[in-house]
């Protein structure tokens, strides 16, 4: 089940979970020299993806509409005779099939609360939430969206198209990739890049300037690294949608579970 919550006051956050947020867990790993197991990490990440899927697939609720019928068939009734009733107010609920996707636009470990069992992530802080599909038809509108992103979205987890605005829902997938990288390696890929090579985070994001640890030093599989790279593609057209992300994560978890089961036999 996707779990979403908006816990703006810190007192509410602290009362909800003694474990704090995912960033706290990452910091604790760094301090203790520990790390998430790959399967454990992917299961937590999948929970985050479920919450994002709920946002990207939001359906308008059913509404009650008043329809004036003049000789037409009602949704669940016969033809109305004009001589008997010229206007009929129908209060039948109308199913709304249109999906109205929303983008969180600030997915990062600090905005993911961890439940007491350390297994269930709760996506929170929706101050940056916006409809994913926004018409940007001139430079003025683009600058407004760009300024909004600068105010509401954390730079080191921000999709490159938010630096030169082209609004779409795949920008959350980029942030998911940064979050998964941070869970594994302690920081956003672009923070790591700046720490090692200098320069600006914006330039690192726009040029996709990041790297993984050397293979011989990396405790995580090549399949895991491929998943992160898939999410961090610069061009949103090359990035997976949330359904493809979940499908790939499910497949990787299944592989790891089978491998671990075989090891324990």
UniProtKB/TrEMBL annotation:
**One Gene Ontology term of the molecular function aspect:** protein serine/threonine kinase activity
Query: What keywords appear on the UniProt entry?
Result: ATP-binding, Kinase, Nucleotide-binding, Serine/threonine-protein kinase, Transferase
SUPFAM superfamilies in the record, alphabetically?
Answer: Protein kinase-like (PK-like)
Coiled coil region boundaries? none
Q: What is its EC number?
A: 2.7.11.1
User: Keyword Transcription, does the record have it?
Assistant: no
Q: Where is the Protein kinase domain?
A: 1-253
Domain of life from the UniProt record: Eukaryota
Name the InterPro entries for this protein: Kinase-like_dom_sf (IPR011009), Prot_kinase_dom (IPR000719), Ser/Thr-specific_kinases (IPR052239), Ser/Thr_kinase_AS (IPR008271)
Pfam families (alphabetical)? Pkinase
User: According to its UniProt record, which reaction does this protein catalyse?
Assistant: L-seryl-[protein] + ATP = O-phospho-L-seryl-[protein] + ADP + H(+); L-threonyl-[protein] + ATP = O-phospho-L-threonyl-[protein] + ADP + H(+)
- Which GO annotations describe the biological process of this protein? regulation of vacuole fusion, non-autophagic; vacuolar protein processing
Cellular component, GO, one term: Golgi apparatus
From the Swiss-Prot or TrEMBL record, give the protein name.
non-specific serine/threonine protein kinase
Q: Which organism is it from?
A: Cetraspora pellucida
């Amino acid at each position: 089940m996707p779990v979403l919550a908006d816990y703006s006051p810190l007192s509410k956050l602290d009362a909800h979970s003694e474990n704090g947020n995912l960033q706290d867990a990452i910091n604790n790993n760094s301090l203790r020299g520990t790390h998430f197991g790959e399967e454990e990490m992917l299961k937590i990440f999948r929970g985050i993806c479920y919450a994002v899927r709920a946002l990207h697939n939001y359906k308008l609720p059913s509404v009650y509409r008043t329809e004036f019928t003049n000789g037409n068939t009602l949704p669940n009734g016969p033809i109305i005779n004009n001589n008997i009733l010229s206007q009929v107010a129908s209060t039948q609920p109308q199913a709304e099939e249109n999906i109205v996707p929303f983008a969180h636009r600030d997915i990062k470990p600090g905005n993911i609360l961890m439940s007491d069992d350390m297994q269930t992530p709760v996506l929170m802080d929706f101050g940056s939430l916006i409809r994913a599909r926004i018409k940007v038809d001139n430079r003025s509108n683009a600058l407004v969206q760009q300024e909004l992103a600068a105010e509401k979205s954390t730079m080191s987890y921000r999709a490159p198209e938010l630096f030169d605005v082209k609004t779409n829902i795949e920008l959350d997938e980029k942030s998911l990739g940064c979050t998964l990288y941070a869970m594994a390696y302690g920081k956003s890929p672009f923070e790591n890049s700046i720490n090692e090579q200098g320069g600006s985070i914006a330039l690192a994001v726009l040029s996709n300037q990041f790297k993984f640890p050397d293979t011989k030093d990396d405790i995580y599989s090549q399949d895991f690294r491929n998943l992160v790279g898939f999410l961090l593609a610069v061009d949103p057209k090359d990035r997976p949608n949330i359904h493809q992300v979940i499908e790939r994560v499910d497949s990787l978890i299944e592989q790891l579970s089978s491998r671990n089961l075989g090891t324990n036999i």
